[in-house]
Protein backbone atom coordinates (compact mmCIF):
# COMPACT_ATOMS: atom_id res chain seq x y z
CA UNK A 1 0.00 0.00 0.00
CA UNK A 2 1.24 3.52 -0.78
CA UNK A 3 0.30 6.92 0.53
CA UNK A 4 -1.53 7.56 -2.70
CA UNK A 5 -4.38 5.46 -1.37
CA UNK A 6 -5.02 8.01 1.40
CA UNK A 7 -6.77 11.36 1.09
CA UNK A 8 -7.01 14.63 2.92
CA UNK A 9 -9.62 14.74 5.71
CA UNK A 10 -12.93 16.23 4.60
CA UNK A 11 -12.67 18.94 7.26
CA UNK A 12 -11.57 22.23 5.64
CA UNK A 13 -7.99 23.42 5.98
CA UNK A 14 -7.29 26.73 7.67
CA UNK A 15 -5.79 29.46 5.51
CA UNK A 16 -2.41 29.02 7.22
CA UNK A 17 -2.17 25.34 6.37
CA UNK A 18 -1.31 23.81 3.02
CA UNK A 19 -3.64 20.95 2.03
CA UNK A 20 -2.08 17.51 2.41
CA UNK A 21 -1.38 16.29 -1.10
CA UNK A 22 -3.44 13.42 -2.41
CA UNK A 23 -3.02 11.14 -5.40
CA UNK A 24 -5.45 11.50 -8.29
CA UNK A 25 -6.27 7.82 -8.50
CA UNK A 26 -6.23 6.79 -4.85
CA UNK A 27 -8.60 4.00 -3.84
CA UNK A 28 -10.20 5.80 -0.90
CA UNK A 29 -12.60 8.66 -1.77
CA UNK A 30 -12.13 10.43 1.54
CA UNK A 31 -11.65 10.17 5.29
CA UNK A 32 -14.64 9.94 7.57
CA UNK A 33 -14.88 12.22 10.58
CA UNK A 34 -14.89 9.14 12.78
CA UNK A 35 -11.66 7.78 11.30
CA UNK A 36 -10.01 11.20 11.52
CA UNK A 37 -10.91 11.41 15.20
CA UNK A 38 -9.75 7.87 15.84
CA UNK A 39 -6.34 8.59 14.34
CA UNK A 40 -5.80 11.56 16.66
CA UNK A 41 -5.74 9.58 19.87
CA UNK A 42 -4.56 6.36 21.45
CA UNK A 43 -0.86 6.78 20.72
CA UNK A 44 1.94 6.25 23.25
CA UNK A 45 4.39 8.98 24.20
CA UNK A 46 7.54 8.19 22.22
CA UNK A 47 9.64 11.26 23.05
CA UNK A 48 13.29 10.25 23.46
CA UNK A 49 14.56 11.76 26.71
CA UNK A 50 17.96 10.15 27.26
CA UNK A 51 19.74 11.24 24.09
CA UNK A 52 23.46 11.97 24.07
CA UNK A 53 25.10 14.44 21.65
CA UNK A 54 26.35 13.01 18.36
CA UNK A 55 29.97 11.83 18.30
CA UNK A 56 31.20 14.88 16.36
CA UNK A 57 29.30 17.52 18.36
CA UNK A 58 32.51 19.12 19.66
CA UNK A 59 33.98 19.24 16.16
CA UNK A 60 30.89 20.74 14.55
CA UNK A 61 30.81 23.40 17.30
CA UNK A 62 34.44 24.28 16.58
CA UNK A 63 33.67 24.53 12.85
CA UNK A 64 30.77 26.90 13.52
CA UNK A 65 33.03 29.00 15.74
CA UNK A 66 35.57 29.32 12.93
CA UNK A 67 32.80 30.32 10.52
CA UNK A 68 31.50 32.89 13.00
CA UNK A 69 34.95 34.42 13.39
CA UNK A 70 35.36 34.75 9.62
CA UNK A 71 32.09 36.64 9.05
CA UNK A 72 31.41 38.78 12.14
CA UNK A 73 28.22 40.82 12.18
CA UNK A 74 26.63 38.93 9.28
CA UNK A 75 23.69 36.54 9.18
CA UNK A 76 24.80 33.21 7.68
CA UNK A 77 22.32 30.75 6.18
CA UNK A 78 23.34 27.19 5.30
CA UNK A 79 20.57 24.91 3.96
CA UNK A 80 20.57 21.11 3.86
CA UNK A 81 18.50 20.99 0.69
CA UNK A 82 15.20 19.39 -0.28
CA UNK A 83 14.05 16.09 -1.66
CA UNK A 84 14.45 15.71 -5.42
CA UNK A 85 11.87 13.91 -7.52
CA UNK A 86 13.11 10.80 -9.28
CA UNK A 87 9.91 10.20 -11.21
CA UNK A 88 6.27 11.12 -10.61
CA UNK A 89 5.87 10.75 -6.83
CA UNK A 90 9.10 8.93 -5.98
CA UNK A 91 12.17 10.73 -4.69
CA UNK A 92 15.88 10.14 -4.83
CA UNK A 93 17.47 9.13 -1.51
CA UNK A 94 18.26 12.37 0.27
CA UNK A 95 21.80 13.48 0.98
CA UNK A 96 22.23 16.75 2.86
CA UNK A 97 24.55 19.41 1.51
CA UNK A 98 28.13 18.91 2.61
CA UNK A 99 28.31 22.44 4.01
CA UNK A 100 25.29 21.85 6.24
CA UNK A 101 26.32 18.36 7.39
CA UNK A 102 29.87 19.57 8.09
CA UNK A 103 28.61 22.32 10.40
CA UNK A 104 25.78 20.44 12.15
CA UNK A 105 26.11 16.66 11.79
CA UNK A 106 22.43 16.62 10.83
CA UNK A 107 21.34 14.94 7.59
CA UNK A 108 17.60 15.55 7.26
CA UNK A 109 15.91 17.22 4.32
CA UNK A 110 14.68 20.83 4.56
CA UNK A 111 17.01 21.63 7.47
CA UNK A 112 18.67 25.04 7.62
CA UNK A 113 21.45 26.28 9.90
CA UNK A 114 21.27 29.99 10.66
CA UNK A 115 23.97 31.95 12.46
CA UNK A 116 22.52 35.20 13.81
CA UNK A 117 25.13 37.85 14.64
CA UNK A 118 25.45 39.09 18.22
CA UNK A 119 27.96 41.20 20.15
CA UNK A 120 30.25 38.22 20.82
CA UNK A 121 29.88 36.38 17.51
CA UNK A 122 26.79 34.45 16.48
CA UNK A 123 23.84 32.54 17.91
CA UNK A 124 23.31 29.31 15.98
CA UNK A 125 19.86 27.84 15.39
CA UNK A 126 19.07 24.68 13.45
CA UNK A 127 15.72 24.92 11.69
CA UNK A 128 14.07 21.55 11.10
CA UNK A 129 10.72 19.99 10.38
CA UNK A 130 9.22 18.95 13.74
CA UNK A 131 7.61 15.56 14.16
CA UNK A 132 4.63 15.14 11.81
CA UNK A 133 1.39 16.51 13.23
CA UNK A 134 -1.12 14.09 14.77
CA UNK A 135 -3.85 16.67 15.14
CA UNK A 136 -4.26 17.48 11.44
CA UNK A 137 -3.54 13.94 10.25
CA UNK A 138 -0.21 14.74 8.59
CA UNK A 139 1.48 11.77 10.29
CA UNK A 140 -0.65 9.26 8.37
CA UNK A 141 -2.04 11.18 5.38
CA UNK A 142 1.03 13.00 4.06
CA UNK A 143 3.52 11.23 1.81
CA UNK A 144 6.23 12.48 4.18
CA UNK A 145 4.25 11.61 7.31
CA UNK A 146 5.66 9.45 10.07
CA UNK A 147 3.68 6.33 9.20
CA UNK A 148 4.93 6.45 5.61
CA UNK A 149 8.60 7.40 5.82
CA UNK A 150 9.46 7.04 9.49
CA UNK A 151 9.74 9.15 12.58
CA UNK A 152 11.54 12.48 12.62
CA UNK A 153 13.24 13.75 15.75
CA UNK A 154 11.32 16.28 17.76
CA UNK A 155 12.88 19.73 17.98
CA UNK A 156 13.78 19.04 21.63
CA UNK A 157 15.51 15.81 20.64
CA UNK A 158 17.37 17.53 17.81
CA UNK A 159 18.67 20.23 20.13
CA UNK A 160 20.13 17.54 22.42
CA UNK A 161 21.68 15.58 19.57
CA UNK A 162 23.33 18.44 17.71
CA UNK A 163 24.00 20.86 20.56
CA UNK A 164 22.15 23.64 18.75
CA UNK A 165 18.79 25.22 19.65
CA UNK A 166 16.17 23.92 17.20
CA UNK A 167 13.16 25.71 15.70
CA UNK A 168 10.44 24.95 13.18
CA UNK A 169 11.80 25.45 9.66
CA UNK A 170 8.32 26.25 8.34
CA UNK A 171 8.59 29.64 10.06
CA UNK A 172 12.05 30.46 8.72
CA UNK A 173 11.25 31.92 5.30
CA UNK A 174 9.06 34.64 6.83
CA UNK A 175 11.78 35.46 9.38
CA UNK A 176 14.39 35.77 6.66
CA UNK A 177 12.17 38.06 4.58
CA UNK A 178 11.97 40.42 7.54
CA UNK A 179 15.67 40.22 8.37
CA UNK A 180 17.87 43.29 8.17
CA UNK A 181 21.62 43.66 7.91
CA UNK A 182 24.14 41.75 5.80
CA UNK A 183 23.24 38.18 4.90
CA UNK A 184 25.05 35.35 3.12
CA UNK A 185 23.54 32.06 1.96
CA UNK A 186 25.01 28.87 0.51
CA UNK A 187 23.26 28.68 -2.85
CA UNK A 188 22.01 25.78 -4.90
CA UNK A 189 20.24 23.70 -2.26
CA UNK A 190 16.98 25.35 -1.23
CA UNK A 191 15.12 27.54 -3.71
CA UNK A 192 12.55 28.61 -1.12
CA UNK A 193 15.18 29.92 1.28
CA UNK A 194 17.02 31.68 -1.53
CA UNK A 195 13.78 33.32 -2.68
CA UNK A 196 13.21 34.68 0.84
CA UNK A 197 16.66 36.29 0.69
CA UNK A 198 16.64 37.40 -2.93
CA UNK A 199 16.85 41.14 -2.19
CA UNK A 200 19.38 40.75 0.64
CA UNK A 201 22.26 38.77 -0.84
CA UNK A 202 24.75 39.06 -3.68
CA UNK A 203 26.38 36.31 -5.73
CA UNK A 204 29.86 37.57 -4.89
CA UNK A 205 29.32 37.56 -1.13
CA UNK A 206 27.61 34.17 -1.21
CA UNK A 207 30.50 32.73 -3.19
CA UNK A 208 32.92 33.93 -0.50
CA UNK A 209 30.92 31.91 2.04
CA UNK A 210 30.98 28.81 -0.16
CA UNK A 211 34.72 29.13 -0.75
CA UNK A 212 35.43 29.54 2.96
CA UNK A 213 33.48 26.40 3.83
CA UNK A 214 35.27 24.48 1.09
CA UNK A 215 38.71 25.59 2.28
CA UNK A 216 37.80 24.84 5.91
CA UNK A 217 37.71 21.16 4.94
CA UNK A 218 41.25 21.10 3.51
CA UNK A 219 42.64 20.13 6.93
CA UNK A 220 40.84 17.18 8.49
CA UNK A 221 40.38 17.02 12.25
CA UNK A 222 40.86 13.84 14.26
CA UNK A 223 37.22 12.80 13.92
CA UNK A 224 37.34 13.19 10.15
CA UNK A 225 40.52 11.14 9.80
CA UNK A 226 38.89 8.40 11.86
CA UNK A 227 35.82 8.41 9.62
CA UNK A 228 37.94 8.28 6.48
CA UNK A 229 39.80 5.29 7.89
CA UNK A 230 36.47 3.58 8.59
CA UNK A 231 35.40 4.26 5.01
CA UNK A 232 38.64 2.83 3.66
CA UNK A 233 38.50 -0.25 5.90
CA UNK A 234 35.00 -1.05 4.67
CA UNK A 235 36.16 -0.45 1.11
CA UNK A 236 38.98 -2.96 1.56
CA UNK A 237 36.41 -5.55 2.65
CA UNK A 238 34.29 -4.63 -0.36
CA UNK A 239 37.21 -5.32 -2.71
CA UNK A 240 37.74 -8.67 -1.01
CA UNK A 241 34.06 -9.47 -1.54
CA UNK A 242 34.43 -8.78 -5.25
CA UNK A 243 37.48 -11.01 -5.70
CA UNK A 244 35.61 -13.89 -4.05
CA UNK A 245 32.77 -13.72 -6.60
CA UNK A 246 34.63 -13.03 -9.83
CA UNK A 247 33.46 -16.39 -11.18
CA UNK A 248 29.84 -15.27 -10.74
CA UNK A 249 30.63 -11.96 -12.43
CA UNK A 250 32.06 -13.90 -15.38
CA UNK A 251 28.74 -15.74 -15.63
CA UNK A 252 26.78 -12.48 -15.60
CA UNK A 253 28.36 -9.03 -16.11
CA UNK A 254 30.08 -6.07 -14.47
CA UNK A 255 26.78 -5.46 -12.68
CA UNK A 256 27.54 -8.38 -10.37
CA UNK A 257 30.71 -6.61 -9.28
CA UNK A 258 28.90 -3.33 -8.76
CA UNK A 259 26.15 -5.02 -6.75
CA UNK A 260 28.60 -6.99 -4.63
CA UNK A 261 30.47 -3.86 -3.60
CA UNK A 262 27.22 -1.96 -3.03
CA UNK A 263 26.09 -4.60 -0.53
CA UNK A 264 29.16 -3.93 1.59
CA UNK A 265 28.62 -0.17 1.33
CA UNK A 266 25.03 -0.41 2.50
CA UNK A 267 25.70 -2.91 5.28
CA UNK A 268 28.65 -1.02 6.79
CA UNK A 269 28.04 2.53 5.63
CA UNK A 270 25.53 4.99 4.25
CA UNK A 271 26.06 4.31 0.55
CA UNK A 272 28.78 4.30 -2.05
CA UNK A 273 30.56 7.64 -2.14
CA UNK A 274 30.21 7.86 -5.93
CA UNK A 275 29.12 5.69 -8.80
CA UNK A 276 31.18 2.51 -8.76
CA UNK A 277 33.44 1.99 -11.77
CA UNK A 278 33.49 -1.75 -12.47
CA UNK A 279 35.33 -1.73 -15.78
CA UNK A 280 36.41 -5.02 -17.30
CA UNK A 281 38.53 -5.45 -20.41
CA UNK A 282 38.62 -2.40 -22.70
CA UNK A 283 36.05 -0.61 -20.53
CA UNK A 284 38.96 0.08 -18.16
CA UNK A 285 40.12 2.65 -20.70
CA UNK A 286 36.96 4.71 -20.14
CA UNK A 287 37.87 6.79 -17.10
CA UNK A 288 34.38 7.07 -15.63
CA UNK A 289 32.79 3.86 -16.85
CA UNK A 290 29.68 3.57 -14.67
CA UNK A 291 27.31 1.70 -17.00
CA UNK A 292 28.82 -1.52 -15.67
CA UNK A 293 26.92 -3.65 -18.15
CA UNK A 294 29.78 -5.33 -19.98
CA UNK A 295 31.15 -8.86 -19.91
CA UNK A 296 33.75 -10.05 -17.41
CA UNK A 297 36.21 -12.38 -19.12
CA UNK A 298 39.09 -14.45 -17.83
CA UNK A 299 42.30 -13.12 -19.30
CA UNK A 300 41.15 -9.49 -19.14
CA UNK A 301 41.80 -6.94 -16.40
CA UNK A 302 39.17 -5.53 -14.07
CA UNK A 303 39.58 -1.89 -13.06
CA UNK A 304 37.52 -1.41 -9.90
CA UNK A 305 37.26 2.18 -8.62
CA UNK A 306 34.94 2.25 -5.63
CA UNK A 307 34.49 3.72 -2.17
CA UNK A 308 32.24 3.20 0.83
CA UNK A 309 30.68 6.31 2.32
CA UNK A 310 30.28 6.28 6.11
CA UNK A 311 27.11 7.25 7.95
CA UNK A 312 28.71 10.66 8.49
CA UNK A 313 29.31 11.15 4.73
CA UNK A 314 33.08 10.58 4.58
CA UNK A 315 34.05 8.52 1.56
CA UNK A 316 36.95 6.37 0.51
CA UNK A 317 38.17 6.45 -3.10
CA UNK A 318 40.27 3.41 -3.99
CA UNK A 319 41.17 1.77 -7.29
CA UNK A 320 42.74 -1.58 -7.99
CA UNK A 321 43.31 -3.17 -11.38
CA UNK A 322 43.01 -6.93 -11.04
CA UNK A 323 43.64 -9.84 -13.42
CA UNK A 324 40.28 -11.60 -13.64
CA UNK A 325 42.02 -14.97 -13.98
CA UNK A 326 44.19 -14.21 -10.96
CA UNK A 327 47.40 -13.88 -13.00
CA UNK A 328 48.69 -10.97 -15.09
CA UNK A 329 49.81 -11.65 -18.64
CA UNK A 330 53.27 -10.42 -19.60
CA UNK A 331 52.02 -7.23 -21.29
CA UNK A 332 49.47 -6.56 -18.53
CA UNK A 333 52.19 -6.89 -15.90
CA UNK A 334 54.49 -4.58 -17.85
CA UNK A 335 51.89 -1.82 -17.94
CA UNK A 336 50.72 -2.48 -14.38
CA UNK A 337 54.24 -2.34 -12.97
CA UNK A 338 54.85 0.97 -14.74
CA UNK A 339 51.76 2.47 -13.09
CA UNK A 340 52.81 1.03 -9.74
CA UNK A 341 56.24 2.63 -10.09
CA UNK A 342 54.59 5.95 -10.92
CA UNK A 343 52.32 5.68 -7.90
CA UNK A 344 55.25 4.87 -5.63
CA UNK A 345 56.98 8.05 -6.84
CA UNK A 346 53.80 10.04 -6.29
CA UNK A 347 53.19 8.76 -2.78
CA UNK A 348 56.80 9.46 -1.81
CA UNK A 349 56.26 13.11 -2.76
CA UNK A 350 53.36 13.53 -0.32
CA UNK A 351 54.83 15.19 2.77
CA UNK A 352 54.35 18.33 4.83
CA UNK A 353 56.10 21.33 3.32
CA UNK A 354 56.00 19.85 -0.16
CA UNK A 355 53.92 21.37 -2.91
CA UNK A 356 50.53 19.87 -3.70
CA UNK A 357 51.58 19.48 -7.33
CA UNK A 358 54.70 17.46 -6.42
CA UNK A 359 52.99 14.06 -6.33
CA UNK A 360 51.41 14.66 -9.73
CA UNK A 361 54.68 15.77 -11.28
CA UNK A 362 56.59 12.82 -9.81
CA UNK A 363 54.09 10.26 -11.11
CA UNK A 364 53.80 11.86 -14.53
CA UNK A 365 57.57 11.86 -14.95
CA UNK A 366 57.71 8.11 -14.42
CA UNK A 367 54.90 7.51 -16.91
CA UNK A 368 56.58 9.77 -19.46
CA UNK A 369 59.83 7.85 -19.01
CA UNK A 370 58.02 4.57 -19.63
CA UNK A 371 56.30 5.60 -22.84
CA UNK A 372 59.59 6.96 -24.18
CA UNK A 373 61.36 3.75 -23.15
CA UNK A 374 58.67 1.70 -24.91
CA UNK A 375 59.03 3.75 -28.07
CA UNK A 376 55.48 5.06 -28.02
CA UNK A 377 56.62 8.67 -28.25
CA UNK A 378 59.89 10.36 -29.10
CA UNK A 379 61.94 11.77 -26.21
CA UNK A 380 63.57 13.34 -24.42
CA UNK A 381 61.33 13.05 -21.37
CA UNK A 382 61.52 16.77 -20.65
CA UNK A 383 60.05 17.48 -24.08
CA UNK A 384 57.26 14.96 -23.51
CA UNK A 385 56.35 16.56 -20.17
CA UNK A 386 56.59 20.11 -21.49
CA UNK A 387 54.22 19.32 -24.35
CA UNK A 388 52.03 17.01 -22.26
CA UNK A 389 52.37 14.23 -24.83
CA UNK A 390 51.97 11.55 -22.17
CA UNK A 391 48.39 12.68 -21.67
CA UNK A 392 47.25 10.70 -24.71
CA UNK A 393 47.59 7.67 -22.45
CA UNK A 394 47.31 9.16 -18.94
CA UNK A 395 44.74 11.92 -19.51
CA UNK A 396 43.75 12.81 -15.95
CA UNK A 397 45.43 14.46 -12.99
CA UNK A 398 47.13 12.18 -10.48
CA UNK A 399 44.85 12.89 -7.53
CA UNK A 400 42.54 15.19 -5.59
CA UNK A 401 41.47 16.11 -2.09
CA UNK A 402 39.20 13.61 -0.34
CA UNK A 403 36.62 13.96 2.41
CA UNK A 404 32.85 14.41 2.56
CA UNK A 405 32.91 14.73 -1.22
CA UNK A 406 34.94 12.34 -3.30
CA UNK A 407 36.43 15.44 -4.95
CA UNK A 408 36.45 17.41 -1.73
CA UNK A 409 37.12 21.13 -1.29
CA UNK A 410 36.33 21.74 -4.97
CA UNK A 411 35.34 25.38 -4.45
CA UNK A 412 38.64 26.28 -2.76
CA UNK A 413 40.79 28.95 -4.36
CA UNK A 414 43.59 27.71 -6.59
CA UNK A 415 46.22 29.20 -4.29
CA UNK A 416 44.92 27.19 -1.33
CA UNK A 417 44.52 23.95 -3.27
CA UNK A 418 46.60 22.98 -6.31
CA UNK A 419 49.15 25.77 -5.74
CA UNK A 420 49.32 25.21 -1.99
CA UNK A 421 51.85 23.62 0.32
CA UNK A 422 50.85 20.31 1.91
CA UNK A 423 50.04 20.38 5.62
CA UNK A 424 49.41 17.63 8.18
CA UNK A 425 45.75 16.65 8.16
CA UNK A 426 45.26 16.92 4.42
CA UNK A 427 43.93 13.75 2.77
CA UNK A 428 44.35 13.21 -0.94
CA UNK A 429 44.34 10.45 -3.51
CA UNK A 430 47.33 9.36 -5.58
CA UNK A 431 46.04 7.61 -8.69
CA UNK A 432 48.22 7.46 -11.80
CA UNK A 433 46.98 5.45 -14.75
CA UNK A 434 47.77 4.31 -18.28
CA UNK A 435 44.96 3.71 -20.75
CA UNK A 436 45.48 2.29 -24.23
CA UNK A 437 42.24 2.57 -26.15
CA UNK A 438 41.10 -0.39 -28.23
CA UNK A 439 41.20 1.74 -31.39
CA UNK A 440 44.55 3.45 -30.72
CA UNK A 441 46.71 2.81 -33.78
CA UNK A 442 49.60 4.76 -32.24
CA UNK A 443 50.53 1.80 -30.02
CA UNK A 444 51.32 -1.86 -30.78
CA UNK A 445 48.26 -4.09 -30.96
CA UNK A 446 49.16 -5.95 -27.76
CA UNK A 447 48.71 -2.74 -25.76
CA UNK A 448 45.24 -1.96 -27.07
CA UNK A 449 42.32 -2.37 -24.73
CA UNK A 450 44.44 -2.40 -21.58
CA UNK A 451 43.70 0.17 -18.88
CA UNK A 452 45.42 0.31 -15.49
CA UNK A 453 44.88 2.65 -12.54
CA UNK A 454 46.07 2.23 -8.94
CA UNK A 455 44.62 4.62 -6.39
CA UNK A 456 45.18 5.04 -2.67
CA UNK A 457 44.01 7.50 -0.01
CA UNK A 458 46.94 9.28 1.60
CA UNK A 459 46.98 11.27 4.85
CA UNK A 460 49.67 13.93 5.24
CA UNK A 461 51.27 13.44 8.66
CA UNK A 462 53.79 15.48 10.68
CA UNK A 463 56.65 13.30 9.44
CA UNK A 464 55.48 12.29 5.96
CA UNK A 465 52.35 10.38 5.02
CA UNK A 466 50.20 7.40 5.89
CA UNK A 467 48.48 5.25 3.31
CA UNK A 468 44.99 4.76 4.71
CA UNK A 469 44.27 2.07 2.13
CA UNK A 470 47.39 -0.03 2.58
CA UNK A 471 45.15 -2.93 3.59
CA UNK A 472 44.91 -3.70 -0.13
CA UNK A 473 48.03 -5.00 -1.91
CA UNK A 474 49.44 -2.93 -4.77
CA UNK A 475 52.54 -4.68 -6.12
CA UNK A 476 51.67 -7.07 -8.96
CA UNK A 477 53.03 -10.22 -7.29
CA UNK A 478 51.27 -9.32 -4.04
CA UNK A 479 48.00 -8.75 -5.91
CA UNK A 480 48.24 -12.23 -7.45
CA UNK A 481 49.01 -13.86 -4.10
CA UNK A 482 46.15 -11.98 -2.39
CA UNK A 483 43.66 -13.02 -5.07
CA UNK A 484 44.79 -16.65 -4.90
CA UNK A 485 44.34 -16.69 -1.12
CA UNK A 486 40.84 -15.19 -1.33
CA UNK A 487 39.69 -17.61 -3.99
CA UNK A 488 40.58 -20.67 -1.87
Tell me what the structure shows:
It is an enzyme of class 3 (hydrolase). Residues 1-28 are annotated as: Disordered. This is Xaa-Pro aminopeptidase. Residues 55-194 form the Aminopeptidase P N-terminal domain. Its EC number is 3.4.11.9. With 488 residues, the chain is of the alpha+beta class. It has helices at residues 33-40, 57-70, 98-104, 138-141, 146-149, 155-162, 172-178, 191-196, 203-216, 222-244, 246-251, 254-268, 330-348, 358-373, 381-387, 391-394, 476-487; strands at residues 75-79, 85-87, 90-91, 112-117, 122-128, 166-168, 183-185, 271-272, 277-280, 301-306, 308-309, 318-323, 427-430, 433-436, 450-453, 456-460, 465-467. The chain has a 5-stranded mixed beta sheet with strand order 6-5-4-1-7. It has a 3-stranded antiparallel beta sheet with strand order 9-10-12, with helices on one face. A hairpin with a 2-residue loop joins β2 (85-87) and β3. α10 runs antiparallel to α12 (254-268). The longest helix is centred in the middle third of the chain and has 23 residues, at 222-244. 41% of the residues are buried. The model is unreliable at 1-16 (pLDDT under 50).
